[in-house]
């Protein structure tokens, strides 16, 4: 959580917590940046770029990562064809919802970013994608934490 909160602060985003009500959010007329704490090393510059894109286009913007796993279709418990990974994206972070879109929503977006993206699309909103850097990957295991540590340690050495 600390890394995710730091990244938001460094990107120039004002932090709010769950105690802010839905009417307060929509009446404020501000853009909403949802950041998944399971993408803790998402660079602040990437978050700021997504916010800028959402403001320029008036459309929601979500960070994504390429799918590298083999994905199979399953129907009625039977494994079927292999899906083309080139046609798939993994939702990462952030999801930026511009104020104009936020005002049109009937309810607060889901806290799960993939579900929030699906809900926005189902409501007729075109969600733009932006490829997140490798450091913006989602953590699902201890192995992922080690990978992020290696990525960010190498990045720090490269700057130094």
Structure description:
- With 160 residues, the chain is an alpha+beta fold.
- The protein has six helices and six strands; from the N terminus they run H-H-E-H-E-E-E-E-H-H-E-H.
- The protein has a single domain, classed as Spore Coat Polysaccharide Biosynthesis Protein SpsA, Chain A.
- Helix content is 40%, strand content 19%.
- Strand 3 and strand 4 (78-82) form a beta hairpin.
- It is globular and about 45 Å long.
Mean pLDDT across all residues, rounded? 86
Query: Can you list the strand order of the major beta sheet?
Result: 1-5-2-6
Q: Give me the CATH superfamily.
A: Spore Coat Polysaccharide Biosynthesis Protein SpsA, Chain A
Q: Give the name of the CATH architecture.
A: Alpha-Beta Complex
Tell me the count of domains.
1
Unreliably modeled segments? none
Number of helices: 6
Tell me what portion of residues adopts beta-strand conformation: 15-25%
